[in-house]
Amino acid sequence: MQWAALLIVAGLCTLSQAQYDDDPHWWYQYLRSQQSTYYDPYEPYEPYEPYAVEEGPAYPYGSPPPPESRDCPQECDCPPSFSTAMYCDNRNLKYLPFVPSRMKYVYFQNNQISAIQEGAFDNATGLLWIALHGNQITSEKVGRKVFSKLRHLERLYLDHNNLTKMPGPLPRSLRELHLAYNQISRVPNNAFEGLENLTALYLQHNEIQEVGTALRGLKSLIMVDLSHNKLRKVPDGLPLALEQLYLEYNNVYTVPDAYFKVSPKLLYVRLSHNSLTNAGLSSNTFNSSSLLELDLSYNQLQKIPPVSTNLENLYLQGNRINEFSISSFCTVVDVMNFSKLQVLRLDGNEIKRNALPVDAPLCLRLASVIEI
Ligand SMILES: *[C@@H]1O[C@H](CO)[C@@H](O)[C@H](O)[C@H]1NC(C)=O
Ligand SMILES: *[C@@H]1O[C@H](CO)[C@@H](O)[C@H](O)[C@H]1NC(C)=O
Ligand SMILES: *[C@@H]1O[C@H](CO)[C@@H](O)[C@H](O)[C@H]1NC(C)=O
Ligand SMILES: *[C@@H]1O[C@H](CO)[C@@H](O)[C@H](O)[C@H]1NC(C)=O
Ligand SMILES: *[C@@H]1O[C@H](CO)[C@@H](O)[C@H](O)[C@H]1NC(C)=O
C-alpha cells in the first residue's frame, strides 16, 4: 500500500536517486509498472548537462516552473525533469539554503550570500558543480572543511565575491576552479596540492603579488588566467601540459631563461601591459618552438626578442622598439628556413616605416599583416 501511494507521487515528479537509495524494492516495483519509461538506474541519468559559458553555468529557461519536490528548499527550484539540479540563483538570498543529498548541480549565483557555513554541503557529498559566483562571500566566513569532503566535485564557481584568501582545502577531483574578481593577494605553494585533474584555473582580476611554486605539480592544467593582478614575477615553474598562459596587466619585469621549455605544449602566451625590458629577458626566453601566439604589447622593450620560426602571431605594439631586426625571426634564410609568422604588430614603437629590412620578405614570406 505504501509504495502504491508513492507511485502516484512519482507520476507527478520524476524519480530521484535518493528514493532509490532508500528503498530498492520499491524501485524495482516502480520499474515494472513503468516499462515504457525505463532507464538504467546504474547509468547516471542527466538529461541536461549545463554548458560552461563565461558567465557560469546555464539555466534551462523556457520550461514552465516545475512542482517543488518534497525536499527542495522553499526558496529554490528543483525541476522534476532534472532531479539532481537545484536552482537558487538571482533571488536576493542572504544565506545558503539546505542542499538535499541527491543534488549534483547547485546554482546559488547572483545573490547576497556572504558565508558558507561549516557543514553546508555535508549531506550532499555527490555534488559535481557548485555555482556561487556573484555573491559577497568573505574568506573569514568560509568553513574550513566545507569543500574537502566533496570527493566528486568537478567545478567550483566562486568568481565575483569578496574572498581575500584562497579557499581550501579543495577536493582533489576538481577540474575547473573559478576565483576571478576577488581580492585574493596570496597563493600559497600548497594551494592546489593533489589537484591532479585540474585543467582550468581562473584567477584574473585579483590582487595576487606572487604565485610561487603552486602551479608546478598540476599535471592536467591546460589553462591558467592570472591577468589583472599585481605580479612582479612570473609563477615559479609551469605545469607540463599547459597550453594557455595569461599574464597580461601585471607588473612583470623579467622572465627567466628557458622559462617556457618545461611546458612543451604551450601555444598562447599573453604578457601585454607589463613592465618587460630587454634587460629582463635572455636571448632565448621566447624562442620556444610550440608557441603560436605571443602578446608582448605595451611593455618597455627596445628590441624585438628572438622568437621561434613556428610562431604565427606576434604582438609588440606600444613598446619602445627602435629597430626591425630580422635576425629575431630568422637566423638562417633559404628555401627551407623561414618564419611562419602571419601577423606582426609593431605600431606604436619608434621604428620608421622605411626601416623594413631588404631580406624581410624572404624571412617573413607568410606574413599577411605587418603593422609598423
Ligand atoms: C543531513 O541529514 C540528516 C538525516 O537526513 C539530518 O539529521 C541532518 O541534520 C542533515 N544535515 C544537515 C547539515 O542538514
Ligand atoms: C563585498 O564587496 C562589496 C564591494 O566592494 C561591498 O559593497 C560589500 O559590502 C562587501 N560585502 C561583504 C559581506 O563584505
Ligand atoms: C581524475 O580523473 C580520472 C579520470 O576521469 C578519475 O579516474 C580519477 O579518480 C580522478 N582523480 C580524482 C582525485 O578524483
Ligand atoms: C631558436 O632556437 C633554435 C634552437 O632551438 C635556434 O636554432 C634558432 O636560431 C633560435 N632562433 C633565434 C631567432 O634565435
Ligand atoms: C634549415 O632547414 C633545414 C631543412 O629543413 C633544417 O634541417 C635546418 O635545421 C634548418 N636550419 C635552421 C637554423 O632552422
Automatic annotation (TrEMBL):
Output the PROSITE patterns linked to this UniProt entry.
LRR
Per UniProt, which keywords does this protein have?
Disulfide bond, Extracellular matrix, Glycoprotein, Leucine-rich repeat, Proteoglycan, Pyrrolidone carboxylic acid, Repeat, Secreted, Signal, Sulfation
Task: List GO BP terms, alphabetically.
Answer: collagen fibril organization
Pfam families the record matches: LRR_1 (PF00560), LRR_8 (PF13855), LRRNT (PF01462)
Signal peptide start-end = 1-18
Q: Where is the LRRNT domain?
A: 71-105
The GO cellular component terms are: extracellular space
Cell location: Secreted, Extracellular space, Extracellular matrix
Q: What is its biological role?
A: Affects the rate of fibrils formation. May have a primary role in collagen fibrillogenesis.
Q: So what family is this one in?
A: Belongs to the small leucine-rich proteoglycan (SLRP) family. SLRP class II subfamily.
| Complex and partners | Binds to type I and type II collagen.
What this protein is called in its record is Fibromodulin
Q: What is the lineage of its organism?
A: Eukaryota, Metazoa, Chordata, Craniata, Vertebrata
